Amino acid sequence: MSTTDLSLNHGFREGSAESPVLLLLHGTGGSPQDLVGLGQEISPESTLLAPAGPVSENGAARWFRRRAEGVFDTEDVIARTHQLADFLEEARQHYGLGTRRLVAVGFSNGANIAAALTLLRPQALQEAILFAAMLPVPEPPAHDLAGTRVFLSNGERDPMAPMQPVGELVTALEQRGARVRSHRHPGGHQITREGLQEAVQWFRHGSAGAGTR
């Protein structure tokens, strides 16, 4: 994965122009390399764009600040979401991605920032695969998400993303018109093989809209 001087440190690997671009968003303490293998399993021919979380929590990279475990700094979530959306615009221009289909793949904190992108900046992201995500902002704006598709995989015993805020995310997306597919597994804060297989099937099923962003 090569890097260039854009507003976020990142990795980039060119793939087929005929395949969607995957935006890989790591979890807390991760790096741009973390989800490369996962992205290649989902779509082996895809171009991979993997930024690094810009926030440091005791040396661990994150996408936004939190006040405590499971308690997000809402103002920072919003600011960092716009930062990531602006980076995506830069990357589209810099790498010549144009209006190619873009699908986010995120785990944990990375899944939460992807969820925030779909809710706050839907013009920047209309498709997302979210592992262990929950509602990132209370009372998100009432954007029209009729062109948005989201896949979620969550553990029923996940102490970091409990079922209630997971359900709140699903409700927020669906109330705004997004098409949501929700997968549950009996485990915890993890990506399961079954969840990955379900995500691959969802990914291959269709897109939010050809030529849209």
From TrEMBL:
Keyword tags: Hydrolase
Domain Phospholipase/carboxylesterase/thioesterase intervals: 16-201
Any Pfam family hit: Abhydrolase_2
Keyword Hydrolase: yes
Top-level taxon in the UniProt lineage: Bacteria
Keyword Hydrolase attributed: yes
InterPro entries registered for this protein in UniProt: AB_hydrolase_fold, LYPA1-2/EST-like, PLipase/COase/thioEstase
GO molecular-function terms, A-Z: hydrolase activity
Family named by the database record: Belongs to the AB hydrolase superfamily. AB hydrolase 2 family.
Name of this chain's protein: Phospholipase/carboxylesterase
